[in-house]
Amino acid sequence: MTLALKLRDIGEDIVRCTDRCSGIACDQAKGIFPRGLILEAEEAHGRGAMIVGMNLGRSDENERAYYCENGAAYDSLLAYWSLRARLLPYYTKARALVRATGVLGPLLWSDVAKCENALAASTSPPLQTLRHCSRRFLQRELAIVPPDWPIFALGLDAYNALAYMIPTRSIIGVPHPTGAYGPFAGLWSGGALTFETQRRIALTRDADDPRAVWLGKVRAGA
Questions:
Q1: How far apart are CA 70 and CA 52, in angstroms?
Q2: What pTM, to 2 d.p., does this model score?
């Protein structure tokens, strides 16, 4: 079974999930459902990469209407992503960074938790929600992703979670691509990744022992 087919099995389980964990929004009838597993450029040659955020941003009215009309199904998720979501700055900026590191193969977009925040929530989902969701889905994804694929964690929360959760894989932590104050932009100079950014990524990606590096402001242990 190909990677794409294995991931489809997980993706279909994700969109059907009705666990309704604490701190999240989930109502398939209203077009709000778990998502966040996309294999982009699955036919591309070369080593791929896994790109993981904490959890999805809130869907807008157009996205929810699309799912209500086309069904809360994995194929609807893939179609909407191809039609519109892949062009959002979150994806375009993160994609540009990963490609700039020399990754030419497929890109697997994922999240620690698959549901968007509840309307009243303004921070990451509760710890137990992250534990439950990552055990149900993310751990299954990691079991089938090729071991030589680097893992890029988008945002400090996702980086910290993955650095502890996956000690057997190297984790490259990237400031959130649409976050405030410009730390993501600071990784670039003249339209290319800075030498220091490229050096730190290469040291982590190519290390014999699994490492974790945060590409934002350098701090002790990063």
A1: 26
A2: 0.94
